[in-house]
Design a protein that fits this description.
With 493 residues, the protein is an alpha/beta fold. It has 2 domains: 139 residues, NAD(P)-binding Rossmann-like Domain (Rossmann fold, 3-Layer(aba) Sandwich); 290 residues, Dihydrodipicolinate Reductase, domain 2, CATH 3.30.360. It has 16 helices and 17 strands. The strands form 3 sheets. Strands 16-15-14-13-7-12-11-8-17 form a 9-stranded mixed sheet, sandwiched between helices. Strands 3-2-1-4-5-6 form a 6-stranded parallel sheet, sandwiched between helices. A two-stranded antiparallel ribbon has the order 9-10. The two termini are 35 Å apart. The chain binds 6-O-phosphono-beta-D-glucopyranose. The site of 6-O-phosphono-beta-D-glucopyranose has 3 residues, from loops.
Length: 493
């Protein structure tokens, strides 16, 4: 299948934090890929900015090295590389000082009537100060958009304060809060699966669904990000945003259209219907863990505290939760969430388990009848599996087996799956907010997370240790097994 390229209008993008990790690993390679695909119009400019003094030539060399490190050699022909580098320039500017902002004004004045994107690839403490400078230097035109990265705060209160400081300069339709999970191919496929097929929606409710599991497992540890991670932990880093967004897409009512607010209104209703987990319930409904030394990615690895170089942190690197959505569609259907670092494999999936059949017409020799399961695999091997019962082929009586109808997107379509950032950056340019979080969504997600954090903070218990390369503390297994259910494993019976 040939990828379809949606043309975009002429734009300038200013990347603040241009020499940082996100810019290097994701943004510059993503922009290069879009250039390769022919989506970036002639004359569009990419302006790097950070505190560091750098010439245009030095920034171009930096960007070239970033692209070479993250884009396979077969996908970077010399002419495209030359065209891409030609678009780049650099302006040093510091959020807390006046230096550099006049220079940026001068550069941007040349394209005053273009679409303009200010991408804040910096820590959240700089969101307010940078926005203020953008405002006071008249760098915000009616066609200007601002992109902010997570973490959007550390609690509901700090998220509200951040949103307020961005909101002083930008109107809500100009603000793009990135959750890169929304840009993943299979996450969007969830919408297609639910709303472009007649098959699922009639059974997508508590009458037919037994429970839902959402797992986002990583084999990596905190790597070079311990400084940030130790102030966040898995609940803030993964659950408040990525996992709750996935839960919303599974649980929301059909939106009236795919327009940004139609979708975001429905997601918000789900967040507001989440049953609060407070007080003593936090202990019963959540498990937090921290990885110890063990084995991962084929070798011995250190524990979290050793990586951190401190013996005392109580930051969780694993969390499992049982959530419930108090509304008509989902009453009494548990949503089990788990995410962690240093788990046995990298896998992100959503598993919808349907209720058992009401009555079996088969005798015991047919074997057990397992429930239907729909598994939506986000990564790796994006695809969908629908587990069904069928008759074992051949003579020998009626014997039943549980087998998957298995669709791997890579096999079915044979196209490169673009990185989530490619799609999201171009959505910003196109002015499409569908895959971005609205202010009230972010705040509602925090409202559900805050009491869990508070209860953990007040507790004398610390996260349970788990050996790297295992599926987290045994309490996470108990969390689901005491309800008579098990975490899904691919080799399901
Ligand atoms: C980020 C988290 O948002 O998502 C990281 O801050 C995490 O801790 C990453 O590793 C996972 O993203 P992906 O796309 O690799 O699943």
């Amino acid at each position: 299948m040939t990828p379809r390229i949606i043309p975009v209008e002429l734009f300038d993008i200013v990347v603040f934090g241009a020499t940082g990790d996100l810019s290097q690993r994701k943004l510059l390679p993503a922009l290069f890929h879009r250039d390769l695909q022919g989506q970036i119009p002639p004359g569009a400019r990419i302006i790097g900015s950070s505190r560091r003094a750098m010439t245009d030539a030095e920034f171009r060399a930096f960007a070239k090295a970033s692209v070479e490190a993250h884009v396979p050699v077969t996908e970077r022909p010399d002419d495209v590389m030359a065209r891409f580098l030609e678009r780049l320039s650099y302006v040093a500017a510091e959020a807390s000082k006046e230096d550099g902002w006049k220079d940026l004004e001068k550069v941007l004045a040349e394209g005053a009537d273009r679409i303009r994107v200010h991408y804040l690839a910096v820590g959240p403490d700089l969101f307010g100060p940078i926005c203020e400078k953008l405002g006071s230097h008249n760098l915000v035109t009616p066609l200007t958009r601002v992109v902010v990265e997570k973490p959007l705060g550390k609690s509901g209160a700090s998220a509200r304060a951040l949103n307020a400081s961005i909101g002083k300069v930008f109107a809500e339709p100009q603000i793009y809060r990135i959750d890169h999970y929304l840009g993943k191919e299979t996450v969007q496929n969830l919408m297609a699966l639910r709303f472009a097929n007649a098959l699922f929606e009639p059974v997508w409710n508590s009458g037919h669904v037994d429970h839902v599991q959402i797992t986002v497992a990583e084999t990596l540890g905190v790597e070079g990000r311990a400084g940030y991670y130790d102030t966040a932990g898995a609940l803030r880093d993964m659950v408040q945003n990525h996992m709750l967004q996935l839960l919303c897409l599974v649980a929301m009512e059909p939106p009236t259209s795919t327009a940004a607010d139609a979708l975001r209104d429905e997601k918000l209703k789900v967040l507001k219907a989440l049953k609060p987990v407070t007080g003593d319930a936090v202990n019963n409904l959540s498990v937090r863990g921290q990885y110890r030394a063990g084995a991962a990615n084929g070798g011995a690895v250190k524990g979290y505290l050793d990586e951190l170089g401190s013996g005392t942190s109580t930051t969780e690197t694993f969390v499992a939760l049982k959530a419930e959505i108090a509304n008509w569609r989902w009453a009494n259907v548990p949503f089990y969430l788990r995410t962690g670092k240093r788990l046995p494999s990298r896998v992100s999936e959503i598993v919808v388990t349907f209720k058992p059949i009401p009555h079996s017409v088969f005798d015991g020799s047919a074997g057990p009848i397992a429930p239907n399961r729909l598994v939506i695999r986000l990564q790796p091997d994006e695809g969908v599996k629908l587990w069904l019962m069928i008759k074992d082929p051949g003579p020998g009586g009626m014997r039943l087996s549980h087998v998957p109808l298995d669709m791997s997107f890579a096999d079915a379509f044979g196209v490169r799956n673009p990185d989530a950032y490619e799609r999201l950056i171009m959505d910003v340019v196109r002015g499409s907010q569908t895959l971005f979080m609205r202010r009230d969504e972010v705040e509602a997600a925090w409202d559900w997370i805050d009491p869990i954090l508070e209860s953990w903070g007040a507790s004398s218990e610390t996260p349970k240790g788990y050996t790297s390369g295992t599926w987290g503390p045994s309490a996470a297994v108990a969390l689901i097994e005491r309800d008579g259910r098990t975490w899904y494993e691919d080799q399901d019976i």
